Amino acid sequence: MQLGMFIDLAQGYSEANEILAGRVPMAADTVTLAKPGHKAIRIAADGSAFIEGFRCDACGAAFPEATMACRACASRAVPHPFRAAETGKLFTWSVVSRSYPGIAVPFVSAIVDLDDGLSLKGTLRDVAPDQVKAGMPVRLVMDNAGGATDKDGAPYVGFHFTPMGDA
Prior knowledge:
It is a single chain. It contains one helix and twelve strands, in the order αββββββββββββ. By secondary structure, it is mainly β. The chain has a domain at 9-40 and 86-163: CATH 2.40.50. The strands form three sheets. The protein has a six-stranded mixed beta sheet, with no helix packed on it. Strands 4, 5, 6 and 7 form a four-stranded antiparallel beta sheet that branches. Strand 4 and strand 5 (49-55) form a beta hairpin. The chain is globular and about 45 Å long.
């Protein structure tokens, strides 16, 4: 698998699963573990990457990070973690036409409401900026964070969104 290639777990690529599972060979006798590139990404015991959200038992509000109390209803019950949905709808977006050196433009920066109520900001790929529509169905795709690695060469796991169906 080439660096910078996106990993589509829904396709079931075994090599992609090896990368996200943290079993990336770095040398003949060493293995290094993949690291979450976003605070909401978790690596499961089986090595699969997913987004973890937190839900309030009192009102059902969902958040991308742990909180001591619910931000929506002020319940003091600690919201419980859940595995986020992998599908949702585009809430809003911005077409970015100017960015840091080395970042291809234009790209679509999007806010997506996942089907379980969690909202995430990420990049929407595989669609022309002039074809983006509010409410279009999208899918969450875990990826290799553009080939980013830490100082020891451990890969990061990131995510982006892609349109679903005829969106």
